[in-house]
């Protein structure tokens, strides 16, 4: 459940956005499904996939859901300092943990233990897909029981920018 300290939603918006109104009224989802894949479209026509999960989803966000949905193996950078960090996982679609980030333009290299961001992109051997995802879930066992998600979109330039900063990855 989100921790909302203060809110104000005009009545005319409550009828237009009933799901948001339920969140603000502390109404929780009581039955499955415990996840939602939404398709969002920007004013410019760019499509975004919104992967949202509740605590009862109980699966690993990237390996169990995002990679199979995007039909692609992923390079994932999340904060590794919490308990029960998940290793890179190989299967039909592999999910590799990024271990170092190289910001060559700033002459800076750092380990992911010093970074709290959460993002994923497709593996460098995939020359067709252009996926990049920005999220709020780490790759760790306790995160299976935490609400959150990721938003993914396709962009050659953004994908390349993220791939260019990937240093070491953890093999399976």
Automatic annotation (TrEMBL):
InterPro entries: DNase_II. GO terms for molecular function: deoxyribonuclease II activity. One of its GO terms (biological process) is apoptotic DNA fragmentation. Keywords: Hydrolase. Belongs to the DNase II family. This is Uncharacterized protein.
């Amino acid at each position: 459940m989100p921790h909302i300290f203060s809110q104000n939603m005009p009545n005319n918006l409550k009828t237009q956005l009933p799901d948001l109104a339920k969140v603000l009224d502390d109404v929780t989802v009581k039955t499955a499904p415990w996840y939602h894949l939404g398709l969002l479209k920007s004013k410019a026509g760019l499509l975004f996939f919104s992967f949202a999960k509740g605590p009862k989803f109980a699966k690993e966000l990237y390996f169990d859901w995002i990679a199979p949905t995007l039909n692609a193996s992923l390079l994932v950078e999340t904060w590794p300092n919490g308990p029960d960090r998940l290793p890179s996982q190989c299967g039909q679609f592999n999910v590799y943990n990024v271990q170092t980030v190289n910001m060559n333009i700033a002459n800076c290299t750092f380990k992911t233990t010093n970074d709290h961001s959460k993002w994923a992109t497709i593996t460098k051997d995939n020359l067709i897909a252009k996926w990049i995802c920005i999220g709020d879930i780490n790759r760790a066992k306790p995160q299976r029981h935490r609400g959150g998600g990721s938003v993914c979109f396709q962009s050659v330039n953004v994908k390349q920018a993220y791939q260019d900063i990937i240093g070491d990855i953890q093999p399976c």
